Methylamine utilization protein MauG (Posidoniimonas corsicana), 373 residues
Amino acid sequence: MTYNSRIASLTICVAALTAATLPANEPPLAAEHEDLGISIQDLDGMASSWLPGELGLLPETPVAADNPLTPEKIDLGRHLYFDNRLSMDNSMSCATCHHPDHGWADPRPRSLGFGGLELGRHSPTVINTAFNGPQFWDGRAHGLEEQATGPIMSGAEMNMPSPEEVTRRVKLAPEYKGKFEEVFGEAATLENIGRAIAAFERTVVSRDSKFDEYVGGDASALTDQEKRGLIVYVTKASCTACHSGKNFTDNKFHNLGVAQEGPLAEDLGRFEVTKDEKDRGAFKTPTLRNIAQTAPYMHDGSLATLEEVVEFYNKGGGDKPGKSDLVKPLNLTESQKSDLVAFLKALTGSTPKVEIPEYQPLPEEEDKLASGG
């Protein structure tokens, strides 16, 4: 049965059931208890087999064909991910803007880059990026391997002047002695640094939320409020128009009309990559898994809470030109908004517990310290 025929069948069944059980002169339901066409009992019966928007359990983590995972490569990537020495002034690592203590993201609206200067966008979470297609808000990187080295070479971020300087530092670091030869069969290169970091990032996966337990067959895993929120999500709020699939994202780019100010006023989003007018002001749909841990929200970090996000969509998004036709006023009631937020919080699962490595100064830095430089 196709997706559309399933929706049609479900709608017909619910409509018939409603018509058969309500007297003809029955007054309409109170606004706070609006009939959305799916009852909690209906939801419990369908959750483990099919949900609108193809929501469900995540598949196995995808791996790049040219970058197979090994324990040694993942551990090498872990060391590189947290290593401040991969920035020009030894002050930043990948974890500076994507820290496990903050949902593998940044609690600041916009991260601080090289020299403490504010960057242009909010740092998205690393959680489940293995399931993404294009990486970054504008999709300029095609995969995790390409994404991993982007910030290292960015003048606004880690500010390394050349691939040669990156590999020079890695070769000097005692922690990496013999590691690249062991994992890749050759000395460190920028490409293999990216592959190792990407291998580690592919282990940062969340797949055991209350929602996952629910669709896995445990009808008691979600509260009634969370179930009502899921019903709102797939019906009146139309969240699956963009946040669909097992990772709660269509991996596409949409203009939400977000009002951009200050340094973000001219952020053209996906357009900067494609030069296609339909992409002007469009940004990638983020995953909603573990969304409760990754505030603030939107590409500019302008919304501080999930309640603010729901209200933003309820009002029909922002007012900037080019807003997607998918973004329209939702007319949710107060209880529906609360239920939706409760469901979004039920998408929080665990992520790997990671030991942050300790690093020794590079030999040249020890010489500077000894000479008082």
Notes: The mean pLDDT is 89. The beta strands are 253-254, 283-284. The two ends are 72 Å apart (CA to CA).
